[in-house]
Sequence to fold (293 residues):
Amino acid sequence: MGSVGIAILIAALLYLGLLLLVGYVATRPPRSPLFLSPAALGVPMEDVTFTNSEGQTLGGWWVPAESPKAVAVLLHGYVMNRSENASVAAELCRWGISCLLFDFRACGKSDGTRTTIGWEERKDVFAAVELARQRHPDLPILLIGSSMGAAAAAFALGERDDLATCAILDSSYSSLVGATLGWWRWLGGRLLEVLLAPVAVVAIPIAGFNPFRADVARSLARANCPVLLIHGTRDDLVRPEHAKRNLALGGPRVRLEWMEGVGHSEARWAEPERFYERIRDFLSDVGGLEVGG
Fold:
């Protein structure tokens, strides 16, 4: 092999190493610390732990409402933890909805070292719903997810048709592979998108799952309950095309509410009145739950 061939081989090996490294880091991101709790926002709260089907212990908070009308299981996003949903839990508690918010595997205070960005996390959703049902077996179960948590909820709904009464999915991607391309583009433009596109294939052994199976739209098509999609029109991380695909393929039970001028999972912070109004209207329409002010 000549010097040119050796140089090409070295470059190829370095490129392969880069792809593997990116796949490793993406599925084993640093844990973010807990930064806010429902108790800090003036509502009651207790620490809880429960176990998923793989034996991992998940940490969370139970927020009990007085004379609850329903139970909401709140699901956080990628590189986040249960604190992301603290303000949502506080608001829902005041509406008379008890809440369970918890850390997915490999996040916050929960066991695990690898995230699958929603796919295997559906098993954590199953375990959380089981705990919610143990607390209030006769009440409606609501799934409310943000970004990765929204995708995990969709995957869970597509697998178990009796899982929840309804679901609210904020800023969900549509297909994980399509979303990763968008993330690379968001981080470094078209060049980085092209450069890192093979990660989805090359890093499968490191990731421990097949990202091509992680299709939110297809899972929503199998869901057996009403689903509200909330998506910002200025979401540059998970672009609005994802919401459009979820709506188009998700079936007649899925509806979409646009949040004008809002970015990724920002509605609860940037436009809380509009965000909670959409949720109140949805719960009243599909579940007969008259909540909120």
In short: The CA atoms of residues 116 and 209 lie 7 Å apart. The mean pLDDT is 95. Residues 31-175+214-287 form a domain with the Rossmann fold fold (CATH 3.40.50.1820). The longest helix spans residues 3-27.
